[in-house]
Design goal:
Blueprint lengths: L8 E2 L3 H12 L4 E4 L4 E6 L3 H11 L8 E3 L3 H5 L6 H10 L4 E6 L16 E5 L4 H10 L3 E2 L14 H8 L5 E4 L10 E4 L6 E4 L5 H8 L15 H4 L9 E2 L9 E5 L10 E4 L6 H16 L5 E4 L7 H15 L2
Parallel strand pairs: 1-8, 2-8, 4-6, 5-9, 11-14, 12-13, 12-14
Antiparallel strand pairs: 2-3, 3-7, 4-7, 5-6, 9-10
Helix pairs in contact: 1-5, 2-9, 9-10
The structure holds threonylcarbamoyladenylate and magnesium ion (MG).
Pfam family, one: Sua5_C
GO cellular component, one term: cytoplasm
Catalytic activity: L-threonine + hydrogencarbonate + ATP = L-threonylcarbamoyladenylate + diphosphate + H2O
Length: 323
């Protein structure tokens, strides 16, 4: 049986680290301290495990997550670092800096981590327990702040337990986080690079290395919330929602065992009607359907509870932001 949040394990305990590695490799959730805030970690290469993060946080939408790796070399296997990204990584990693990179075509990271975007956010944390957790898991770890949706980021193991008790498998207790605010997020896919979220590394420090760093709304504007700064994946095809019937030239996104017949091509998010499996498949299946030679896309109704709310949020955005 998993070790529950009510009984956080000790930082210095080798057994706890080994157990964390096993849980993560098996698709479970482990909270770990970083130098900024505690993260809720899962195997970034396992879409079901990543869906578990959203489920545990109760997030009503799929925001893209930060991938935590051991080194610049490991980051380069996930996304492409241009000259600016490389200069920032060499100066500030390990540390509280997250770089948004173009996803590599052969990136092992689940599409759900990027919430369907062509970019991926990566950082190399400095905290020894975060580093030991990554090493024990032997895979990149997707980790948002380890709090339930709508709560502030946790800076102690007790905060994590208070917020997510019973919804994760293990908490590595490293005491209070040193920095206490989240990492600085920089989009390196644009020129000049854009500061998406202020955080542990000040803008001036970035600019000393790479020159001008832009703010998303231009200087002087009201700070936008991070969620609004992220553009969303939108399919090229028109998307119809709550479809009960489907035309022969449409691509169908189905769910459960009640599948309207006759579509040109059908992808079922979860034949068993499991919302976590559906979340894990959502972006890959949407992209796949969007590439098919069809007139348009149709999606059946998805139950609007738990992860279903986040799936529906995304489908509504895809509908409005699509052609
Ligand atoms: O300090 C931190 O960054 C902590 C620790 C655990 O590492 N993590 C954290 O994660 O704050 P989260 O999920 O709470 O915030 C991630 C931020 C969000 O603002 C998100 O929009 C942005 O990173 N982000 C992630 N992937 C992105 C992408 N591909 N493009 C643009 N923004 C992205
Ligand atoms: Mg957060």
């Amino acid at each position: 049986t998993p070790i529950r949040a009510a009984a956080p394990l000790r930082a210095a305990d080798d057994d706890a680290i080994a157990r964390a590695g096993e849980i993560l490799a098996g698709g479970g959730l482990v909270a770990f301290p970083t130098e900024t805030v505690y993260g809720l970690g899962a195997d970034a290469t396992n879409p079901r495990a990543v869906a578990g993060i959203f489920e545990a946080k109760g997030r009503p939408r799929f925001n893209p997550l930060i991938v935590h790796v051991a080194s610049l070399k490991d980051a380069a296997a996930i996304g492409t670092l241009n000259t600016v990204a490389r200069a920032l990584a060499e100066r500030f990693w390990p540390g509280p800096l997250t770089l948004v990179l173009p996803r590599r075509a052969d990136s092992p990271v689940a599409e759900l981590v990027s919430a369907g975007l062509d970019t991926v956010a990566v950082r190399v944390p400095a905290h020894p327990l975060a580093r030991r957790g990554i090493a024990a898991a032997q895979r990149p770890l997707a980790a948002p702040s380890a709090n339930a949706s709508g709560e502030v980021s946790p800076t102690t193991a007790q905060h994590v337990a208070d917020s997510l008790d019973g919804r994760l498998d293990l908490i590595l207790d490293g005491g209070a986080c040193e920095v206490g605010v989240e990492s600085t997020v920089v989009d390196t896919t644009r020129t000049p690079p854009v500061l998406l979220r202020p955080g542990g590394i000040p803008r001036e420090a970035l600019e000393a290395v790479v020159g001008a760093v832009a703010e998303p709304g231009g200087s002087g504007g009201a700070p936008a919330s991070p969620g609004q700064l992220t553009s969303h994946y939108a399919p090229d095809h028109r998307l119809r929602l709550n479809a009960a019937t489907v035309a022969g030239d449409e691509g169908l996104l189905a769910f459960g065992d009640d599948v309207p017949p006759g579509a040109a091509v059908t992808r079922n998010l979860s034949p068993a009607g499991d919302l976590r499996e559906a979340a894990a498949n959502l972006f890959a299946m949407l992209r796949d359907l969007d590439r098919q030679p069809v007139r348009g896309l149709a999606a059946v109704a998805i139950p609007d509870h738990g992860l279903g709310r986040a799936i529906n949020d995304r489908l509504h955005r895809a509908k409005h932001e699509g052609v």
